[in-house]
Amino acid sequence: MKKCLFALLFLLCFQLSFAQNANHLNSVLKQLKFKESQINKELFTEKILPYDKSKSVLVIPKYDVNEKDEYGNYYFVLDAYIIVIDNASGKIIYKGIEPNAWTSDAVVLSSISIDTGLYLLNKTTRAFGIRVNYSGSSRPNPYSETNLSLYIIDKNSLKKVLKDYTISKSSGEWDTNCAGEFEDANSTFDMDKTQIHNFSTIIVKTKIVKTVNVPTKDDCIAKETIKKETSKLIFNGKEYK
Description:
Blueprint: H1 2-32, E1 45-49, E2 52-68, E3 74-86, E4 92-104, E5 107-120, E6 126-136, E7 143-154, E8 157-174, E9 180-196, E10 199-215, E11 220-233
Antiparallel strand pairs: 1-2, 2-3, 3-4, 5-6, 6-7, 7-8, 8-9, 9-10, 10-11
């Protein structure tokens, strides 16, 4: 009985959240004077800011180009509309527009997500992130990449302080059976105590795993080598470089 009640409550919460997201999207599209057909709804995403639950971030990918080639593959270019709304009224508070921000072609733009990690740039400024994920379609040459951008609210406007940093990347070349080489690089951010232009330096810690697959008579042997690197992103007064 308890399990059924829990499942029912979960379903109701999910439906309420879904309906609320749809209402927010509809409201914002009206304010922007967009039609649904002008945006890529599969890539649209929304998230409540955990450190300010009266506000939500919406990422609205608006088509600039939307075509299909002779083989039926989609090619599109998207303008990025990064929107912050008041949850109670649904009204747009802040808006960032980036023309031709994202392209999907042979390397497919597979998903977009909002990252509300602990990006404390100083005592009073916390950034949120937008992660854009890409994946290749070649089986012999697998490829994927995630780019991270950071945004802050500064002087009643939305400001991008980090642009398309490659936070993870995977690539390889193999015979689709065993023999081949692969490389995976994944980075994490730590905020340093050092500040330049009143913003903390970002310490980037990257783990790189290289894998070599070698076929044997009855098996496929994988040998890994791991390397760790550390670098810095420094705020130059406008953005992190």
